[in-house]
Fold this sequence. Notes:
Elements: E1 4-10, E2 16-18, E3 24-33, E4 41-49, H1 50-59, E5 65-78, E6 84-97, H2 101-105, E7 115-117
Parallel strand pairs: 4-6
Antiparallel strand pairs: 1-3, 1-5, 2-3, 3-4, 5-6, 6-7
Amino acid sequence: MNQTQLIGRLTKDPELKYSPSGVPIVRFTLAVNREMKRDEADFINCIAFNKVAESLANYQKKGSRIGVVGRIQTGSYENQQGQRIFTTDVIASNIEYLDTRSDSTGGSQGASNYESSTNTGGQYQGSSQGQYGGNNNQPSYTRADEDPFANSKGPIEVSEDDLPF
Length: 165
């Protein structure tokens, strides 16, 4: 099995580029704190493609805290001096934004916990908390008398203007 999960901060603003065939690509470096030494970090090279890349480039910036799920890929190339250079990258299949919106954009309150994944790579793991801890601020009804819909009889009327889509 080849799977890795990382939490860290972007070392610079993600820059969206396109392959010759038109595939969106973002190469980024993630600064990941070492477990025992909080003042030391590893800098992990990562690559995202397609919608994951577009979303990362559009919504995140240098210093943003993100969670990355992906696989490790090794490769090599020959540099201009003819030397063989070996590379190790994390190919991101799923990225979750861990900063609150006010932290990352100066905008509204609340945790974004927006999860971006490819059609084949990531899976949403829904729960009352995000995969990496955030709270989605949904009410939790444990008693029937607290349920606002407990006394409703029949369908609830919703106008087209109230729908977010």
